[in-house]
Amino acid sequence: MDLALALRWSGCRVLASRPRQGKAASRRFTGALAAKSANEPNNCYDVVLVGGGFAGLAAVGRLAKQRVHGRKLRLLLIEQGRGLGGRVCTRRRETTEGPLAFDHGCQYFTAKTSQPHFSDACRMWQDAGVAGAWHAAVGKLSLQGIGMEDAIFEPFDQSKVPLVGIPSMSAIGKHIIREAQDGQNDVDVLTSSKASDAAWDDASHLWTLQVNSEPVKTSVLAVTTSARSCVRMLGDACPSGCEASKVKSNVCWALLVASFKPLTCQPDWDAALVDGSSCFAWVSRNTSKPSRPKPPAPECFVLHTCPEWSNPRAELSKDEVRKLLLMEFCRQFGCQNEAVVYAEAFRWNNAFPLNPLQLPKKCIVEPERKLVAGGDWASGDRVGDAFESGVAVAVAVLTLLNA
Ligand SMILES: Cc1cc2nc3c(=O)[nH]c(=O)nc-3n(C[C@H](O)[C@H](O)[C@H](O)COP(=O)(O)OP(=O)(O)OC[C@H]3O[C@@H](n4cnc5c(N)ncnc54)[C@H](O)[C@@H]3O)c2cc1C
After folding, report:
1. Is 128 exposed, middle or buried (0-12, 13-18, 19+ CB in 10 A)?
2. Atom 36 of ligand 1 has which residue's CA nearest to it?
3. Could you tell me if 254 and 310 lie in one domain?
């Protein structure tokens, strides 16, 4: 059996048994977690959280600060992606023309007055230097024909300045975990690891999950994935008629494109909802965000497709979609094909919940089986909704542990 290594990774502890071997290899673990997941209840986690997006991060950040009955909690956050942040993330690429950065999911966030925890967190992230204002011209872009010459841009009235992660969207997730690991409790983080087959045992009152084919046990299970992943992960343990199974979501394709020449018509916008395009719903000049690579590095754009275009093309390959969308970008936005130094298509399978549950409690709680579930879908469809739901998950978990 391999001995697990406790790695320091960007200031946060990640458990892994061996270094990643190639892009697709997942980080398997055995030693440390296997020891903790032995049969005695004292040797398992108090709380396992599945899903390291903003809901999971908000939950783990809150739980890291609380002891229960004066006792240290043992927490484990499991994330299937390589990094934390979920749909709030940045893709970096190196090219011979210079470094590139694309925020290919969430574009920016603002806190509503009805989101007190998220408002406080945004202020703290700004103070810590991991979030900052994006003084951007954001509005509606009406494409009138081909090549941008006649496009009309109408800026939105923005009561709040958009915020972004500094120097990348991923910085906020790393910051939250650093703080959590400096807190009262033991916080383990496992990335590149998929949790599946959750099963509740009535006799021991414990959950067992399969994580990279290894069993992990926990007293409380908190699921902070998308609604669809939550239902899939719980499998047979998902109660019939479970509310999460009612949430529908859209597919969204993102085009990440970098050009070393400006568009033929230099835009007066930084980001816009696109009107009059057969495929694009959103365009953003990623380069205009603070702390992103600036010229002479190539200019980076992120485009999102509309559901009418994405949903019927959900099964196309990334390469097919890249070719189709790049051709449309060059045609509709007046970009010279030969100036493109990089293009990539990325598919968001559960981009936005179409019918979020808007639960008053912002999460689902099943006290008998010590199961809590949340995410944007439980309360809305934005980052702030995910964060508030994550805080509600933490509060519910603490109530279960204190009972
Ligand atoms: C293209 C796009 C643009 C957006 N733009 C904006 C915007 O501008 N402003 C805004 O406020 N919001 C925006 N959003 C919405 C916002 O990103 C989401 O509402 C929010 O990030 C959701 O957070 P979450 O934690 O609920 O879910 P997620 O961020 O999806 O996190 C869930 C995590 O669970 C992980 N996971 C799933 N299954 C498993 C498993 N079995 N084991 C381990 N891990 C698992 C996933 O990998 C993921 O990291 C956008 C979303 C998309 C897709």
Report:
1. middle
2. 51
3. yes
Are residues 281 and 224 part of one domain?
A: no
Distance CA 293, CA 62 (A): 33
My answer on whether 15 and 140 are in the same domain is: no
> Distance, CA 315 to ligand 1 centroid (Å)?
20
Same domain, 281 and 228: no
Check residue 265 and give its pLDDT: 67
Which residue lies with its CA nearest to atom 4 of ligand 1?
Answer: 106
Q: What is the position in ligand 1's atom list of the atom closest to the CA of 348?
A: 53
What is d(CA 245, CA 357) in angstroms, rounded to the nearest whole number?
11
We report the CATH number of the domain holding residue 218 as: 3.50.50.60
Domain housing 73: 5-86+171-247+354-402
Ligand 1 pocket mutation pick from 108, 225, 228, 381 by most atoms within 8 angstroms of CB: 225
Give the ipTM of the model, two decimals please.
0.99
pLDDT tens-digit series, residues 40-86: 334 599 999 999 999 999 999 999 999 999 999 999 999 999 999 99
Residues with C-beta less than 6 Å from any ligand 1 atom: 50-56, 78-81, 86-88, 105-109, 194-196, 224-226, 229, 233, 252, 254, 304, 348, 351-352, 375-376, 381-383, 386
Residue 362 and residue 323 share a domain: no
Sequential DSSP letters for 4-31:
PEEEEETTEEEEESS---STT------H
Question: Residue 89 C-alpha to ligand 1 middle, in angstroms?
Answer: 9
Average pLDDT over the chain reads 88
Residue 141: predicted pLDDT:
94
Per residue in 139-197, pLDDT tens?
Answer: 999 997 777 778 899 999 888 899 999 999 999 999 999 999 999 899 999 999 999 99
CA-to-CA separations, 230 to 78, 256, 377, 399, in angstroms, rounded: 13, 28, 11, 21
The burial class, CB within 10 Å (0-12 / 13-18 / 19+), for 278 is exposed
pLDDT of residue 24 exceeding 50, the answer is no
Domain check: are 211 and 265 in the same one?
Answer: no
pLDDT band at 240 (very low <50, low <70, confident <90, very high): low
- Asked if 236 and 303 sit in the same domain, the reply is no
Q: What spacing in Å lies between the alpha carbon of 81 and ligand 1's midpoint? A: 11
